[in-house]
Amino acid sequence: MKHVLYLHGFLSSPKSVKAQATKAYFEQHHPDVTLHIPALSNYPSQVESQLLALIESTPALIKDGLRVIGSSMGGYLSTFLIEKFSGKAVLINPAVKPYELLQGFIGEHTNPYTGEVFHIVESDINVIEKLDAKELRHAPAYKVLLQTEDETLDYRLAETKYASSTLVVEEGGDHSFIGFENHLPAITDFLLND
Predict the structure, then answer these.
(1) What is the CATH number of domain 2-192?
(2) Which runs of consecutive H residues, i.e. helices, occur in 110-154?
(3) In what order do the strands lie in the sheet with 87-92?
(4) 29 to 7, 24, 91, 115: CA distances (angstroms)
(5) Model confidence over 118-157: pLDDT tens digits?
(6) What whole-number distance in Å separates Cα of residue 79 and Cα of residue 74?
(7) How is the chain split into domains, by residue range?
(8) Do residues 147 and 155 lie in contact, with contact meaning Cβ atoms separated by under 8 Å?
């Protein structure tokens, strides 16, 4: 039994369109794979301990090498996990320096999926910055899907950081990654075939 971890982005949830499309695809085409879609904390300072606790309580996740799909901030967190535990990851419009972006998010927010109201404070940003894998020791372990019209992140940052990884750069699109479901066969091939 293989296990795959899906990490959603900031201000998102397991109910997001991509998470649900991934879940439906695995149920239909890979019923033998267990897909884990944790609801990541809205508080960036809590996410590292949450992920490490999940891996500790579910050793099957890393037994044969971690396999992760990460979107936006989830892509940043996936990179942290792969550099720590090794494995493979597919990143969708990943955040490269979310701690710089979060400077503009200090204050109160409401998660549009859960309705939870929360505050981003300066210390959250410091915690997220500590997770930055400045150098990729496992560059071939990543497949990175980027769209050039991402309105939230500059795709060129990821294109540069993951230059030695498998890159798929599509003209147009947006931060949600239009047509994501069309890539699910290639995503699962990359993750599940050793």
Answers:
(1) 3.40.50.1820
(2) 122-130
(3) 33-36, 2-7, 66-71, 87-92, 142-147, 166-170
(4) 20, 9, 20, 32
(5) 999 999 999 999 999 989 999 999 999 999 999 999 999 9
(6) 9
(7) 2-192
(8) yes
